[in-house]
Amino acid sequence: MDNTTNLMSEQFRPTLDEFRALARGPANLIPVTREFAADLETPVSVYLKLMDEPGASFLLESVEGGEQVGRYSFVGVNPRGTITLRGRVVERSAGGQGGRGAGALPVSPAPLLPRSPASYELPDGEDILHVLKTEMEQFHYAAAAGLPRFAGGAVGYLGYDVVRFFERLPQTAAPGPDVPDAVFLLADTLVVFDHARHRLILLANASIDGTGGDVEAAYVDALQRIDRLAEKLLRPLPAVPARRWGATSGNGNGLESNMSRDRYEAIVREAKEHIAAGDIFQVVLSQRFSRRTSAHPFAVYRALRMLNPSPYMFYFNFAPLDMQVIGASPEMHVRLEDGVASVRPIAGTRRRGTDPAEDAALAAELLADPKERAEHVMLVDLGRNDVGRISEYGSVAVRDLMTIERYSHVMHIVSQVEGRIRPGLDAYDLMRATFPAGTVSGAPKVRAMEIIEALEGQRRGLYAGAVGYFSYDGSMDTCIAIRTMVMQGDSVSVQAGAGIVADSEPAAEYQESVNKASALLVAVARAEAGTL
Q1: Does residue 132 form part of some domain?
Q2: Three-state DSSP string of 229-278
Q3: Can you tell me which residues the record assigns to a coiled coil (predicted)?
Q4: How far apart, in whole angstroms, are the C-alpha atoms of residue 285 and residue 271?
Q5: Over 90: is that where the pLDDT of 482 sits?
Q6: Is 86 exposed, middle or buried (0-12, 13-18, 19+ CB in 10 A)?
Q7: Three-state SS annotation for 187-207
Q8: Of the candidates 283, 274, 275, 258, which has an alpha carbon nearest to the alpha carbon of residue 449?
Q9: In a domain, 212, yes or no
Q10: What DSSP assignment string belongs to 119-172?
């Protein structure tokens, strides 16, 4: 059976009669799906077939524990709208910020924040999470059995400096990179890989309100969006891009930092003085590296996913901003599923062994290292405090305390902290309670952030923020924005840091931050050389 037959043999779910029955209830947003066998496609091939769509798009993948492919991968194109935050100014646009070309996929007719202006300043007491919550709460979602973990919602990132809405911090650092503080795509049309079932799910959320209450029109619109997706997926694989569109510049040989080696080592010494004075126990200090490249951003992502398979791999093309966000983060920031909040701190690292015996010996050495254990326990306690702020009394527990998680090149000590959130609270409250992660700020968290503000000298931008989604069904899954690159024009930048404790050596911490950044930029070099 060829791929065309596979596609045409599958039926839409729900049927029109089932859809009408759902529409008679409180739901005004109903997912419509169509499945077929996924043995002839990969997430990368699907994205390549859809990447010529105008506007923004994304690809989310996962390798759990660094070794097993996660159950789902998600491709999203032609979002219903985009919400961008710069400082206190919110910008809203319909669609994916791009024009509509011939043959472009149709966009969901669901409304975008009715009664709100296209650009406005947040009033006192509100933040970007209020905006997202207002957007999402227009909809009563008809969750159905068998839907993937994510079936639509707001997908994007919160930059580190969004924390200024949640905590009072000094305003001493200079402006950072010219990157929005937050960007979220409102995704209503998805291609979902279910790797466990080897199925490809085409999903379109049907908005009853978007068609003026015409139930059948909403259903037909969803079918048409799915059919257009299917048509595009039946095309031959297009040429794989190696160079950025119209790029003529050469590749940069040098790596530039926003601070000198002497300056970085000096701020490490200053941080140690704060630790000795009892201000903090630990603080993460970072620097930002950049260089020029003519590599195509998606070629960089393909290289990164092969070099560094991770639990959270993502590619965002914010096309009209001429900005791509590319990452392979090992660490969950926070997740909410079925009312249970989870954080998963990672601290403590060793290289992988050359054989199973050496690998086991290195793992035992890591778990026995008193410095690594002390730092990890401190971050677990910070995670317990964060989750405890919004959890039911007595529900916070540590799962999998100090286990070894192996990745392609390194192993880490990881733990998982869980708690059941209190009635009346939601994913947005959970994000406020936990943002940013202690593993990229320090402990105590607020004092560590004050010291970061004073010592780093520039705003962090996306680095150390959160990347992921808020779903229509109330769930959330986000990772920490580390091992993440931002590409703008012919420039690529990456920020990396090191955790400073009482016995840190400034030269060693500087080199750790350089090594982390350099490991990511290997993917850029491979993309430039075409050695994928």
Answers
A1: yes
A2: HHHHHCCCCCCCCCECCCCCCCCCCCCEECCCHHHHHHHHHHHHHHHHCC
A3: none
A4: 9
A5: yes
A6: middle
A7: ECEEEEEECCCCEEEEEEEEE
A8: 283
A9: yes
A10: EEEPPTT--HHHHHHHHHTT--B---TT--S--SEEEEEE-GGGGGGTS-----
Per DSSP, 75 falls in state: E
Does the residue 54 lie in any domain?
yes
Share of the chain above pLDDT 90, in %: 70
Domain span at 212 = 3-169+178-233
Query: Domain count of the chain?
Result: 1
Q: What is the pLDDT of residue 429?
A: 97
Catalytic machinery residues: 412, 439, 463, 483, 499
What is the SS3 assignment for 84? strand
- The CATH code of the domain that includes 146 is 3.60.120.10
Nearest alpha-carbon partner for 451 in 227, 281, 257? 281
Residues 69 and 333: their CA atoms lie apart, in Å, by: 19
One-letter amino acid of 518: S
Q: What is the DSSP string of 437-460?
A: PGGGSEESHHHHHHHHHHHH-B--
Distance CA 526, CA 242 (A): 10
By three-state DSSP, how is residue 391 classified?
strand
Residue 411 has φ and ψ, to the nearest 5°, of: -125, 150
**Gap between the Cα atoms of 311 and 63, Å rounded:** 5
With bands split at pLDDT 50, 70 and 90, how would you rate the model's confidence at 6? very low
